């Protein structure tokens, strides 16, 4: 075998190992979620089995259903996304396109807020929310999610706003359109793509958040990432059901991630230059 | 906001033309202020105010389990912290966890990006599959690893270990193995991030420099060392900064996999502050720990940003 062929097969092997390693936990949960509890427990692990949707039926419609938790996750994520975008788009536009004193400081402030460790924010927040009775409420969780979603969304959007040529808005402005109208009619349509990417990121981050959710959730509002603990206990783990819940919890983010794959890389890179991601 | 905009419009018509530029600038300032106000008020309320309140609570004894002992204690919490062995060990664990995961992510991510860069086919697979870990919730990731991957005699890793003749291991029950496990999980989840960012940066490098280097008969290693690495340096440093910030405050995966245990073997400083505040309900001391974590974060990021500036 020539050196080139050896090289080729070595590369192929390395690639396959990494692709398998990254895909495996996801694929394996999916497989297990289609098994019966007995098949899921089998040793050695079963690759061939007759698939069933039993586990999904149980976790969705059985007692202790996680349907309310999926709804909680959805309300929190959609709510956070809407509030964040309503505030971030105008702020990002101002930071990217307008001249005003203290602009540099404003940009730095947004960046600096991302440095705060979440555990430092949640301790005082918990005390305040407890006093005003906002523990276990949607507004309590959505409000604190702004602490990480806003800075991220603003920085990401600024990078998209900066890409538009200035002549665009100058022309509209000279034609007599007001600034607000220019922003709404001329600028926003130009950054539709950037806004879509930002929405995906804000939704993903809100869906995946865990620390704030653990502290602030209760019986009424409990996202699925927190509720999945019910399926693991010291005495026994409900393997097939746990797998089904995991798959349901990852479904929205995996679908979004794969669909928006190309744009996510740009988002990550922008984050890499300007801000930070979420853990 | 609407009324402010109309007010400036009225002013503009009343003022002589020579002041037009000044009026425009003023109008722009007001418009900017109106656009920024909602976001900045929200940021003040959700980041700056909690930070000040955190520093304030760290000067109190605030025990939710024993409220009758609460009161102002000044710097007492910080004095206790300096002699708290669990604090120092959690700090050390934080540094080991952060250092090792960041180095592994950057080295593996860069190696893989270089490898994939040269691929004629199959790049697309990498791009799609690499997205998976990055978008998953660390809590879900932790749960999957804890059960389907690492559980003794059930998880796939243990299955492989047994078949490789290593025997079944108590991956999360042994202090050293538990630490190795959480490091591997973090590296597994976030290496694709470093990989994707570095791959994007590699793709943006100018091709003609490499052509010239090839004509000069530079070896592959020389090309990597003299061209790729220096050109990629800003991207690498930025990846290091971002991953460090995140690793220092990692929470969900460690919390779901080991809960900081066994004992305090995987308890990073972040987790210690959480446990102290919300499990042991000692909020004042927990606040002091969170302030310490903030100081550590600022110090480390200052060093990293200095690294970024240097040349």
Task: Summarize this entry quickly.
With 279 residues, chain A is an all-alpha fold. Chain A contains 14 helices and no strands.
Overall 3D shape of chain B: flat
CATH class of the domain at 64-231 in chain A: Mainly Alpha
Biggest β-sheet description of chain B? 2 strands, antiparallel
Helix and strand pattern of chain B = HHEEHHHHHHHHHHH
Q: Could you tell me the mean pLDDT of chain B?
A: 89
Describe this structure in words.
The complex is a heterodimer of chains A (279) and B (311). Chain A has 279 residues and is mainly alpha-helical. Chain A has a domain at 64-231: Orthogonal Bundle (MetI-like fold), CATH 1.10.3720. Helices cover 75% and strands 0% of the residues of chain A. Chain A has 14 helices and no strands. Chain A has helices at 3-33, 37-41, 54-61, 67-97, 103-113, 118-132, 138-161, 166-174, 179-190, 192-208, 211-216, 224-227, 239-259, 261-274. In chain A, helix 1 crosses helix 13, helix 3 (54-61) crosses helix 13 and helix 4 runs parallel beside helix 7. The longest helix of chain A is centred in the first third of the chain and has 31 residues, at 3-33. With 311 residues, chain B is mostly helical. Chain B has helices spanning 2-14, 20-57, 76-82, 85-117, 123-135, 138-149, 156-163, 175-203, 207-215, 220-248, 252-257, 269-279, 283-309; strands at 60-61, 71-72.
